[in-house]
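DM between two lab members

TW: hey, do you still have the Large ribosomal subunit protein uL10 entry open?
JB: yeah, one sec
JB: this one, 176 aa:
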Amino acid sequence: MTREEKGAIIEELAQKFQSIPFFYITEASGMSVAEVNDLRRKCFERGIEYKVVKNTFIKKALETLETDYTPFNDTVLAGQSGVMFHAQNQKAPAQLIKEFRKTNDKLKLKGASIDYSLFIGADQLDTLISLKSKEELVGDIIGLLQSPAKNVVSALQSGGGKLAGILKTLSEREEA
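TW: and the structure you got?
JB:
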């Protein structure tokens, strides 16, 4: 592989890391060709891009970014590495890894970056699955903020109906 080809791979990876704020680094060593093909098929079905890349290329691509990825250097970027990207759903790769591990425990999560927060180790898989996206968090906050306002409005509306009923009853009593 020429220096230009290596540079092109690093540049492509750096652009992916920059444009997609979440990615997963996995290890699939020891898997047969059929098992890797099964993994790739499942990734394709879910819209997940999966690439096996040399650790040095990943490391150099991450060095071009503003975020500090040095915690990945010793533990995550060792052995054979594959990178998973999903443009819309930050949980999709974690869910796929967990599901795939039910039938094949050779696939391991080495690390992940979710909105530039680093998660290192296979024990982080359940945490990654339970993380809420920015949109979900914003929705939760809006719901919490609207809740008291809705209570006040409903109390005023129901109270207004009661008040009108009371006034009507009192006016009927005066007439009688």
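TW: got it. The mean pLDDT is 84. The chain has two domains: 3-131, 132-176.
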